[in-house]
Write a structure and sequence with these properties.
Blueprint lengths: L1 E5 L6 H14 L4 E3 H8 L5 H4 L4 E5 L6 H9 L8 H25 L3 E5 L2 H11 L5 H6 L1 H7 L5 E6 L2 H10 L7 H16 L1 H8 L4 E6 L4 H15 L1
Parallel strand pairs: 1-4, 1-5, 2-3, 3-4, 5-6
């Protein structure tokens, strides 16, 4: 099964995934964290290295190859790259990840849980430039490949942008102009919740779930865990 978790910055995606990891570890599920593997080995794991595991925790962009360049160079403040170049880089990083890890893992009947993905590109990138329509983004080869392996479940962690901004301030995540970011997050939230966006996934067989990220932490964890048990 392939589960993707998404939402605006500060919504609580990490809280959801960390809650699930704790639950699965308590069930003695062997978990492979790609983030840890990437940082340790500087590459993607091979299918042989999946064997001891039943769960893979993934994230995008990756921390190797193009993904590393995206994180360290392409999306920093003052980047010289165009929105189209950045979109194509994300898609290429995604294509390599899917070919090397996601598709082989699903073929081996593993559970894959991923933080962000093609769902993020289809929400955020059309907001950066009018030429980057959802159709254009979906048809970039890496994205088209990912959409042929659309997640079984897409979890959208929903939150009021003002609350998300306050969380980002608490975490001192002030890497860009904050007020401009809040206006962007308002648009992104509207897009995540729109029928046209969700239909891009439903039409490919994805079940969409909305989790309330604005409730107290303990309640959010309970609801996230209840949802995972229901899905599994």
């Amino acid at each position: 099964m392939f589960i993707m978790v998404d939402g605006i910055d500060g919504a609580g995606k990490s809280t959801v995934i960390d809650t699930w990891i704790d639950f699965l570890q308590n069930k003695n599920a062997p978990i492979l964290s790609l983030r840890t593997f990437w940082k340790t080995h500087g590459r993607h794991p091979t299918p042989e290295e999946f064997k001891p595991h039943t769960v893979i925790i993934s994230a995008e962009p990756t921390f190797v190859g193009i993904g590393k360049k995206i994180r360290e160079e392409m999306i920093v403040s003052g980047t010289p790259y165009t929105p189209r170049q950045i979109a194509e880089a994300y898609a290429e990083d995604r294509k390599i990840l899917y070919a090397a890890v996601i598709v082989p893992a699903l073929q081996k009947n593993l559970l894959v849980i991923q933080d962000r993905g093609v769902s993020t590109s289809l929400c955020y990138q059309p907001l950066h430039h009018t030429d980057l329509t959802p159709e254009v983004i979906a048809n970039i080869p890496g994205n088209a490949f990912a959409l042929t392996h659309a997640p079984n479940h897409l979890i959208l962690v929903d939150i009021e942008p003002a609350i998300a901004i306050s969380r980002l301030l608490e975490r001192q995540k002030q890497d860009r102009a904050l007020f401009e970011k809040e206006s962007f997050l308002i648009k992104a939230r509207q897009r995540f919740l729109s029928h046209s966006y969700q239909e891009l996934f439903r039409s490919r067989g994805t079940h969409i779930h909305i989790l309330n990220g604005g409730v107290p932490l303990a309640i959010m964890k309970e609801e996230a865990l209840r949802l995972l048990k229901h899905i599994l």
